[in-house]
């Protein structure tokens, strides 16, 4: 296997003095999608935020051989890390075009690619982002990350709260992005994980409890039940109305 | 009728003064979450140094006043930027320490100004036209009110243009919504903090020079008095909202003028009642973000 793009060693994170990530170590390969999984509240989002320096953290984080855990967030991102946060966090009072312009770091931002991937939001570029639907806001959030040529994308629960059709659109956009950039993906929807992820890292209690090929986890119902708290993959509804295997729960 | 016109236009003039102070306060709080109690000190030092330069070059003339205004803006901007860079920058997210240091700076600066310029007000000369009145619908309006209104409108227009048309303006507008997300897009948001302090300081500096025209004197307490009303205006308008600050400045000042005239000089009291009412009914202010 080639050198990993991201190496996380003994990473711990704290919010308001409380330990939310504890001694986490894992690697993200330089290609494909690696899913960061776990039950609700195990520290997946906090792990992403620790990597980016958005919360207090200790431990080591290397991006392609460069140590980044001592850098401030804006310098980590400038190293080529795109971030799609949980709950999208678009700037609601700014237009779609302003949201994208703000995110442009490269001298030649990939506006055409973004336009091609998200024609709907391109058509709404003069609209305030706060007036968009949840799915459209997610597209803006993804577009902000894809407008630059990144070395790694950190994508946090991109399908949370979205309608099933939009979930598929988001998954398609991520699959397209994954052709050119490795992705560390936090996701609850096993349907999306099956579709996208080659490798998985599972957290429990703020620690890594499983690392391996996605199929090793997803084809083992007992392991899914034990590690993700899913009794049976086919009867646990996900937030978008799909069950954990992607079938409609309604 | 003429009384109403007089109160309205003089209220607008006073509101213009409040806005020049409140615009900086509001931007600074909106982007950085800093309640800057030292903002009045920026105004006072700008007024003093602007007056010192203006009177030495050409006292009581338009040229002298223009020079005072320019110097006041520069002094306000430099002192504010230095305050952010040397004192506030280390204390972001530490609100109690920020309050302590800005309150301390405000108190110390008043003592310093009294030490340099004395405790009594120093009366200032102004161009002849500004001492006269203009009749509008039977009301004799002091001309200096027109200058205040014009300057505040220019400052408002300039800040809006800056926020809408420049990259830093875009960063500041986004930062008011979510500072951490701006950082997560790879932008060093702290650079824009200094710029916002400088803009706020420049507006306060201009406000200081114009306040000396409005009141007819400069004193070590000039900024402290205006700061109280600027805070009230900022809270009523909605912390972080420039438009809210502009609207609230006019509302508060006009209300104050009418109450002073029709309710036996109770303008300050009525403004406090208005503040309490806004805090009870709409705590986020007229145009502030929902918590």
- In total, the number of strands of chain B is 4
Task: Give me the count of strands of chain A.
Answer: 10
H-E string of chain B: HHHHEEEHHHHEHHH
CATH architecture call of the largest domain in chain A:
3-Layer(aba) Sandwich
**How many structural domains does the protein architecture of chain B include?**
1
Assign the CATH topology of chain B.
Answer: ABC transporter involved in vitamin B12 uptake, BtuC
Report the biggest beta sheet of chain A as strand number plus sense, adding barrel if it closes.
6 strands, mixed
Brief account:
Chain A contains ten helices and ten strands.
Tell me what the structure shows.
- The complex is a heterodimer of chains A (250) and B (291).
- Chain A has helices at 44-52, 73-78, 96-103, 111-117, 119-123, 134-146, 164-178, 190-196, 214-218, 221-228, and strands at residues 6-15, 18-28, 33-38, 56-63, 66-67, 81-84, 152-156, 183-186, 197-204, 207-213.
- Chain A is α/β, with parallel strands linked by helices.
- Chain A has two domains: 1-80 and 151-250, P-loop containing nucleotide triphosphate hydrolases (Rossmann fold, 3-Layer(aba) Sandwich), CATH 3.40.50; 91-149, no CATH class.
- In chain A, the strands form two sheets. In chain A, strands 6-7-8-3-9-10 form a six-stranded mixed beta sheet, with helices on both faces. Chain A has a four-stranded antiparallel beta sheet with strand order 2-1-4-5, covered by helices on one side.
- In chain A, a hairpin with a 2-residue loop joins strand 9 (197-204) and strand 10 (207-213).
- Chain A starts with 5 loop residues before the first strand and ends in a 22-residue tail after the last helix.
- Chain B has a single domain (2-281), classed as ABC transporter involved in vitamin B12 uptake, BtuC (Orthogonal Bundle).
- In chain B, helix 1 packs parallel to helix 5 (143-165) and helix 2 crosses helix 8.
- The longest helix of chain B has 31 residues, at 2-32.
- Helices cover 76% and strands 4% of the residues of chain B.
């Amino acid at each position: 296997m080639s050198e990993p793009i991201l190496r996380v060693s003994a990473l711990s994170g704290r919010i308001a003095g409380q330990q939310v990530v504890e001694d986490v170590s894992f690697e993200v390969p330089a290609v494909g999608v690696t899913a960061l999984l776990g039950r609700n509240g195990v520290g997946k989002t906090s792990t992403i935020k620790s990597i980016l320096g958005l919360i207090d953290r200790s431990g080591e984080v290397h991006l392609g051989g460069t140590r980044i855990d001592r850098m401030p967030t804006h310098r980590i991102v400038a190293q080529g890390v795109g971030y799609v946060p949980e709950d999208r966090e678009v700037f609601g009072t700014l237009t779609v075009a302003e949201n994208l312009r703000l995110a442009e770091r490269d001298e030649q931002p990939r506006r055409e690619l973004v336009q091609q991937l998200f024609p709907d939001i391109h058509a709404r570029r003069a609209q305030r982002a706060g007036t968009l639907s949840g799915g459209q806001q997610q597209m803006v959030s993804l577009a902000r990350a894809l407008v630059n040529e990144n070395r790694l994308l950190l994508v946090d629960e991109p399908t949370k709260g979205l309608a099933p059709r939009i979930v598929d659109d988001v998954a398609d956009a991520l699959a397209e992005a994954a052709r050119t950039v490795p992705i560390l993906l936090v996701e609850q929807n096993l349907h999306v994980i099956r579709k996208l992820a080659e490798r998985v890292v599972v957290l429990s209690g703020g620690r890594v409890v499983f690392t391996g090929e996605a199929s090793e986890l997803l084809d083992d119902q007992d392991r899914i039940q034990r590690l993700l708290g899913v009794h049976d993959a086919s009867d646990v509804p996900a937030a978008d109305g799909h069950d954990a295997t992607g079938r409609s729960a309604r | 009728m003429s009384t109403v016109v007089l109160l309205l236009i003089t209220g607008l003039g006073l509101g213009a003064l409040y806005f020049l102070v409140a615009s900086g306060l509001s931007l600074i709080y909106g982007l950085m979450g800093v309640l800057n109690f030292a903002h009045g000190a920026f105004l006072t030092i700008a007024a003093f140094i602007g007056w010192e330069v203006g009177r030495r070059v050409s006292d009581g003339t338009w040229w002298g006043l223009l020079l005072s205004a320019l110097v006041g803006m520069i002094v306000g901007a430099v002192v504010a930027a230095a305050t952010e860079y040397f004192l506030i920058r280390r204390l972001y997210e530490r609100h109690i320490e920020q309050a302590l240091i800005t309150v301390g700076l405000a108190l110390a600066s008043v003592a310093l100004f009294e030490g340099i310029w004395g405790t009594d007000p120093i009366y200032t000369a102004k161009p002849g036209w500004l001492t006269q009145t203009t009749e509008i619908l039977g009301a004799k309006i002091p001309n200096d009110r027109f200058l205040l209104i014009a300057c505040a409108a220019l400052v408002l227009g300039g800040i809006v243009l800056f926020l809408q048309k420049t990259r830093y303006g875009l960063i500041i507008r986004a930062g008011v919504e979510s500072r951490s997300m701006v950082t997560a897009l790879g932008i060093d948001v702290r650079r824009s903090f200094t710029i916002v302090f400088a803009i706020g300081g420049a507006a306060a500096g201009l406000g200081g020079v114009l306040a000396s025209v409005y009141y007819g004197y400069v004193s070590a307490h000039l900024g402290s008095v205006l700061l109280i009303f600027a805070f009230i205006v900022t809270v009523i308008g909605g912390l972080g909202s420039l438009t809210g600050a502009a609207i609230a400045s006019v509302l508060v000042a006009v209300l104050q003028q009418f109450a002073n005239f029709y309710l036996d000089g109770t303008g300050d009291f009525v403004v406090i009642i208005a503040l309490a009412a806004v805090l009870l009914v709409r705590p986020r202010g007229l145009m502030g973000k929902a918590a």
